[in-house]
Structures are given as structure tokens and as C-alpha cells.
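I'll show a typical protein example:
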Amino acid sequence: MSAAGGSSRVARRTRSGGVPGTRRGLGPDARGAALERGAMSHAVSKTTLPGGLTVLSQTLPDRRTLSLGVWVRSGARDEPREQLGVTHFLEHMMFKGTESRDARAIAASLESLGGSLDAFTTREHVCYTARVLSEHLPQAVEVVSDLVCRSRFEPAEIEREKSVVREEILAYEDNPEEKVSDVLAELLWGDHALGRPILGTEATVGAFDRSALRGQFEPRFRSDQLVVAAAGGLEHDDLVAEAARWFRPPEGAPPAFDGAPGPHRASVRHEPRELQQLYLSLGGRAVPYGDPARYALVVAETLLGGGMSSRLFQRIREEAGLAYSIFTTLDLLRDDGLFAIHLGVSPEKGREALRLLREELARLVADGASADEIEAAKMQIKGSVVMAQESVSSRMYHVARQELYLGRYTPPEEQVEKVLAVTPEQVHDAFRRFARPERFSLAALGPTEGGPLGAPDWPADPA
């Protein structure tokens, strides 16, 4: 259970160390699309209960298990600056005791039935998830509703959990891949909430008390701020009946939501640290989740760094032998987005890797990509969701995120049509708009030869 560090880090670590979703551009995967029309189509049912609780389901009659999620419509970016980390801390506290269960009983509640219980916090949402056999739908709904509606927030448990979160913060600081993403987030979003760490700081976490937690819980966990989503072997009417029976959210005032970030001014920051590798993250702004331009951008991102056949992997790892790991990420938010590149290199190879990376970006901006590359990227997008559709959890994430970002469900078949309809000129335009190297900020963590990296190593256009 924890949160992603940089907004580009969209693979959220969870309580059990799992990954609830890897990309956010189109569905459960930002390279999300689906099979040919009708091949995997399943209707999504939606009911809004009195009070505003949204209930969504996708019934898969051949499945014997289901995935259930309760999603909060706000995330870490919506917390007050002086309470940095409170969203993530609330997630922790939900597992520390309710009116009818202690922490041990919560842990055993679904595991004793062969299921599992988990949670994760992102910049824009919090999700509490359960995986169970279909026959245990009533128990799953009751347990998750108990967490999000009837947690006690006992002072002794709060003090104990502060120590746990402090250790998580320290572990996070020791993880260079996560840390460099946080540095990039600061460069991209500046003083905006998107540039602040989801975990908070030792100082802000140390100041939390029951009053502070209740003050955030009551407005943000109201009925109209929750979405209950499920996919797998279940009937919608059964889910609605169980949700109506068990959910009794607080009745706080409407929550406050963070505003849109200001413009990005590209810059460079290098934090020297005694490590074996130099970690580099570069990024620029993208588009919001609902922007139609995302389809071409997802194709461009896949082509650039989405796998072993991508431009950057082939040029910088396979041909030049400069990096073991190099990949791109795309994070599409409610009002903006982030397009990023991540790589780890030996300290003496950092400047050469940046030079080749800049050359490749400039080439794509100037010339675009070949038709064969673009078609291959589209097929990679299609294949990734075909496999994701095999997972009831991926389906649940997709259904929920469509509701949270768009207020409606877009079938994967419709998404794949839009991806396959993307033209070479649209992909070229995406590179021209979002991949200009001078508009990327550079975050670096670790040692280098020849002194810290600076503006001469990555000339940026701050305008």
C-alpha cells in the first residue's frame, strides 16, 4: 500500500506489492484498445443511489471470480498544503480498525475466504479493492464498505501508523527511480500540488491527529464522492442491493478540489548522490485524459519508448549500449498530462545518452515516423488490451476510470477504432507538439563524470 512518487509513475505500488494498472491513457493500459468489434464487448450497468453513490458493474457470465473497487473522486493533489500526505495516511488508517473489526480481523476478513484486500493512492484518486470468488460478493461489499464508512481513527493507532509511514518515506527516498520521478514532478508542476510528494513529509505526517483525519474524511468520503465498481461473475442488481445495504458514508460539506496547474517552464536539476548509476527522467506536458488528441499521442509514446522494439530502446540500448533500462510513460490527468522518458546509465555515459536521446527526439519532430513503425505501434496497443481484458481487475479499473474522468463508459472496441484510425500526420503532429526536446525538463539523480549536469547538457526553452 502506497503511492506513486512522480506523476509520471503511473504504476502504483499497493499494499501487497502488486500493480493495479500500468498506464492511464485509454483504459487499464494507456496503450489501451481492444479486439475487433464485438469480440470482447460486455455492457456496463450504472445506478446512482439516493445520496449520490455511483454503482457500476460489468457482468462476465463465464467468470467465477470478481474484482470490486471503491474509488474516491479526489486524490493527493486535493489535500491542503499544510496536510501533505493526509490522503495516503487516511488510506493506511482505513486498515487499522473499524467499529466492528480490529486490524487483524480486517486482514483476515477476505483472506479467510480465499480472496484479498488492497488499496492504493494516486494524485487524483484513492481505490480500495477486493478480489473474491463470485459467491462472496456480499462479504466483499460489506468489508470494503466497513473500511470506507466506519473506520475509527483511534489516536493510539494514528501514532503507531506515523512510524510506519515515516519508514515508507525513508524507503522511498532511498529508491532512486522513484526519487528522480519526484524531482521531475517538481520541475514540471512547480509549486502546484501535482509537484508535491504523495507520501507527505516527516513533518506533515508527524502533525496528523484524529481531528485532522476526520476533517479530510468527512467531505471526501461522502456518498457523491464514491464510485463502487465491479467486474466479473456478478449480477448488477445484486451489487446495487449490497451497496445500498452496507454503505453509510459520512455527510460532510462538499470537498474542495485543486485547480489546474500553471504553464511549464523547462529546466534542469541534478541532485548528486552516491549511487552506482545515474538516473535520468525527462518530461513535458501532455493533454488531459478526455482530450481527443490522446489517441495519436499514445501511438507516438508507444513508438518512442513503449517496448523493446521502440526507437529509444533500439537506439540507446541495443545500438549504443548506453542503458540497461529506457522507457516512456504517459500520465493523462483531469486537466493536464505528462509525457516522460526514464533511463538509467553509468555515470560516465550520461552526457552521451542525453545527446543521442536529443537527436532521436529531434529526428521524430522533424521527420515523423515511418508508416510501418506507426502500424506496429497500433498493433502493440491493440495487443496490450487484449491481454488486459483477460483480467477482471483490469476491467474494473477501466470501468471506474472511464466514470471518474469522462462520466461515461467508452467500450474498448470504440477505442481501438480510434487508435487504428490515427494517421501518420497525426502522429507527426503529436511529436511536434509534445516531444520537442527543448520543452522537456531534465531531472538527474546520481554521480556523473565532469561535474553535475546543467543547462549546457540539455538546452531548454523556458518560454
